[in-house]
Every structure is written in structure tokens, then in C-alpha cells.
Design goal:
The protein has 263 residues and is α+β, with helices and mostly antiparallel strands. It contains nine helices and ten strands. It has a seven-stranded mixed beta sheet, sandwiched between helices. Helix 2 links the parallel strand 3 and strand 4. The chain starts with 6 loop residues before the first strand and ends in a 15-residue tail after the last helix.
């Protein structure tokens, strides 16, 4: 199958986050065998908190929930809380089950997307890498250590507070987070790109006590970073989209070498 230019690309949509969540589900439900991959870009028009599928609302600070200052949503994929808004660019990639980028190994199915993001960021002057599974697992194993367990549990209330295989990092700080919904008809891969890493709001909402908020204030900047900090300037969503689309249009002809994304 020729992967070059075999993409159906939907333009950036900036609207209510629930509409994005519903559209993601619609993309996945509409997949048919033989379809081209669909890319759908999104950004929430206003700030909000999106919890993972099984994450309980009591993860959030009860005092902040009582203020109703931010809308709270639940996404279909797993993971923990993500702050959405103009500082986060989202991408959905809908793939039919027979697409060559859908691999039997779920973890390896993320690899092409992580490496494509590395190449896209390189076009923007940012040197990043897709974190290998063993390194991601080693960071996650910190929660098994008694000395680190409490701090890790608090930081992991935020999705960008922990690493998963093939997510994109600079050093050890996450820039692009990934998740996936896989069903019989296909897969929906999702990426979230930090244009700006907004930690103050997350610390208030995820820290139940002043001590927990202090941990989040100090720890979250160590776990993730925005493109603006890395580049020394504000990078627009349009710049990011253009860079990524150039990369995916250069994916190689043979699925077996799909990971050799051209920089």
C-alpha cells in the first residue's frame, strides 16, 4: 500500500471540547475497510479539564470543583487529567483495521506517530525524541519505590506527569502525549501537543492540599514543557500543523520501513 499522500485531512476545528470528543467517536465509528487514514486537528475554544475514561472526578480538588470555574469532560481513552484550551493542539488519526499502520502489537502501533512528531518538531527547530518503551516503563516503575510513591501518585493525576512508550520528549520532559482507542473496525490514535505548558491551573485543580499543590508546582515543570519554552517564541498551531503534514506526506512506500520517517 502506498502511504504517500493517502491521507484525508480535516482542517483545524476550534470549538467546545465536548464537540471534539464526540467527533473523535464519530470518526472511529465511521471507519470502513480500505479507507484512507483520516487526520483531524482540534483545539478547545476555552480552558477545560478532560479526565481519562476511568478517572474519577474525586481526583480533582473538591474546593475547585465547587467553584465550577472550569468545565470537566471525560474522554473515551484512558489516562489521567489533561488541561485543554488554546495552549494544547490535538490530533486524531483514524485508521481502518486493515491499514498497514495498525499493528498487532499495540505499543508498537504508537511508534510511527511518535517518530513522525519528532521529525515535525525538527522542522520547527526543536530536537526531540520518541521515548523507547523500556525507558518509559522505568519512569513508571518509580511509583513502586516507597520513597517516591506518594509524589509520583500526585504527579500522575496529570496525564503529562508521566511517560508512555513513544511519546515525544525533550530530555525527560514530555512535549507530545499519545493515547489510543482500538476497536474491531480500526484504531483512533490521539496526540496532544503542548504549545504552552500551563501548570498553575493543574496544580490548583489536582492538588487537594497545599502540600500536594506544592508537589505539583515543583514537579510538573520537570515532567513536561511547551514548544514556546523550547523555541523561545510562541509557535502557532498553523506552524505545527504544516510541519506535521509535510512529514506524513513523506512516509515511505513500504509499511515495513514506515518508522524511517524523513526529517
Amino acid at each position: 500500500m502506498n502511504l504517500r499522500n493517502n491521507w484525508h485531512i480535516l482542517p483545524l476545528s476550534i470549538t467546545d471540547q465536548q464537540k471534539h470528543i464526540d467527533r473523535s467517536e464519530s470518526l472511529l465509528m465511521a471507519i470502513q475497510p480500505g479507507d484512507a487514514a483520516t487526520l483531524s486537528w482540534s483545539m478547545a475554544a476555552a480552558d477545560g479539564l478532560v479526565l481519562g475514561f476511568s478517572q474519577k472526578p474525586d481526583t480533582l480538588n473538591p474546593a475547585m470543583r465547587a467553584t465550577a470555574a472550569l468545565p470537566v469532560y471525560h474522554r473515551r481513552a484512558g489516562g489521567t487529567a489533561v488541561l485543554v484550551g488554546p495552549h494544547l493542539l490535538g490530533l486524531d488519526v483514524a485508521l481502518p483495521a486493515d491499514h498497514p499502520l495498525v499493528l498487532p502489537d499495540i505499543v508498537e502501533s504508537y511508534r510511527w506517530l511518535g517518530e513522525a512528531w519528532v521529525a515535525a518538531l525538527q522542522r520547527l527547530g526543536i530536537t526531540a525524541r520518541a521515548i523507547p518503551p523500556d525507558e518509559a516503563h522505568a519512569q513508571r516503575d518509580l511509583i513502586k519505590q516507597a520513597a517516591a510513591r506518594e509524589r509520583e501518585a500526585i504527579l500522575r493525576r496529570a496525564c503529562y506527569g508521566a511517560l508512555s512508550p513513544y511519546e515525544v520528549v525533550v530530555g525527560q520532559r514530555k512535549v507530545v502525549g499519545l493515547d489510543m482507542i482500538r476497536r474491531r473496525q480500526g484504531s483512533l490514535l490521539q496526540a496532544g501537543v503542548l504549545l504552552h505548558w500551563e501548570t498553575e491551573t493543574l496544580a490548583r485543580w489536582l492538588g487537594h492540599t497545599p502540600a500536594e499543590q506544592d508537589i505539583l508546582h515543583s514537579g510538573l515543570p520537570e515532567r513536561a514543557v511547551g514548544l514556546d519554552t523550547l523555541s523561545g517564541r510562541a509557535i502557532t498551531p498553523q506552524e505545527v500543523i504544516a510541519a506535521f503534514e509535510l512529514v506524513i506526506r513523506s512516509l515511505p512506500l513500504h509499511p515495513g520501513s514506515v518508522y524511517n520517517v524523513q526529517h
